[in-house]
Every structure is written in structure tokens, then in C-alpha cells.
Amino acid sequence: MSGNKKISMAVIRRLPRYYRYLSDLLKMDISKISSKELSQRMGITASQIRQDLNCFGGFGQQGYGYNVESLFNEIGNILGVNDKFNVVILGAGNMGQALANYSNFEKRGFNIIGIFDVNPDLVGKEINGKKVLHFDEFEEFIKNKRIDIAMLCVPYEKTPSVAEKVASLGVKGLWNFSPMDLKISHDVIIENVHLSDSLMVLGYRLKEKLRKDALAEAKK
């Protein structure tokens, strides 16, 4: 891939999905797959798959398709799975605890090395083998450890100030679970995760399905 070639964010956002499907194929001992076969599994066109992968140089062979293991490893390299990012969780409430207990992060190269909160009922508690530290200790903690990403699971009104603080200390990636599109003054990468948005889309689709089902039933 050319270092000057800009890859669209839409393509980047599809890569983890390719990675996930390829992982499943490896578990099924499938060693090669065509773009057509992959498209049928993923529900996107074979043309889209070829276009996406060609952004990175292309990995298939005419008449053969894709070597599943090779493509899985290449996409993993593109996504930084092998780079091993150090992560902290800020906020040890329900969401923070759920993230701390999610085992797939480490498999994907994200190593949780610290959990922080200000709630005295949570500070000192052990979650998945890690002791929750007070947020006042964060500045000293980061002096001794490289932290790449902070998962923000703090209350809505606290999110901007906490984000500014950790960014000022050198954290370059923020994964924000607060229901806001976070923007701060520092040069950091922010991924805003809005779980309720996805749920509302599901609600809309379900409502439309129920409406269509009712219309179909009325026509009988």
C-alpha cells in the first residue's frame, strides 16, 4: 500500500468485520475462499470486497481466491492487532466492569493494564485480577507505563474534563462510551461509541417489520 494513498474511513470500518469472518473460517478449517463465497457469508458484494482489499495492495489470486490464514494475518497487521496497545479503563461502574471482564480485547492486541475511579466504594475493588486505583493516582501511574488508549466510562458531565486530563498526559487514543460526540483541544484520536444509537436503529427496523407483517396479514 502506498504511504501517500488515503484509505476511506468506510473501508477501515469494514476491516474488523473481515477479520472476524476470517477468524471463523480458520476455526472451520477453511483454507481458501473466493470473494464470491466471502460475499455470500458477509452479505456484501464480491466487488466491494475486492475494492476494499485492493486499497491495501490486494491479496487474492485469479482463479484461486484468498488464502484465509494469510489474509487474516495481513488484516490483523493492518489493524495493529500485533502492535499490543496498552489500555486503561476510566470509570469502574457497570460499563467499566463489563469492559474489564471482556476477554477478547487481549486477543485483539489491547492489553488492559489499569482501572481507575473516584468512587470510594469501587476504589480498591479487584476486577478481573486488577485493583481499581483512584483517579488521583493516574498521573503517577502514566509516568511509569506507556498508555496508548483510555476507555472513558465516566459520567456524562465529567467526560470532557477527564478526556482533557488524560490527553494532556500523553494518551493518544480515547474510546468514549459517554453519550456525547466528544471533542477536545488536544491532538488525539477519538472513537465515540453510542450503544443507544444501535439499539434505536434496531427498534426502528423491528417496528418496520411488525408494520409490514401486519399489512401482509391484513391482505390475507
From TrEMBL:
The answer to keyword Transcription regulation applying to this record is: yes
Tell me which Gene Ontology terms the entry assigns under biological process: negative regulation of DNA-templated transcription; response to redox state
Q: Which residues bind DNA?
A: 17-56
Compartments annotated for it: namely: Cytoplasm
Residues recorded as binding NAD(+), renumbered to this chain, are G91, A92, G93, N94, M95, G96
- Give the matching InterPro entries: CoA-bd (IPR003781), NAD(P)-bd_dom_sf (IPR036291), Rex_DNA-bd_C_dom (IPR009718), Tscrpt_rep_Rex (IPR022876), WH-like_DNA-bd_sf (IPR036388), WH_DNA-bd_sf (IPR036390)
What family does the entry list? Belongs to the transcriptional regulatory Rex family.
Q: How does it assemble?
A: Homodimer.
Q: What is this protein called?
A: Redox-sensing transcriptional repressor Rex
Q: Which organism is it from?
A: Acetivibrio saccincola
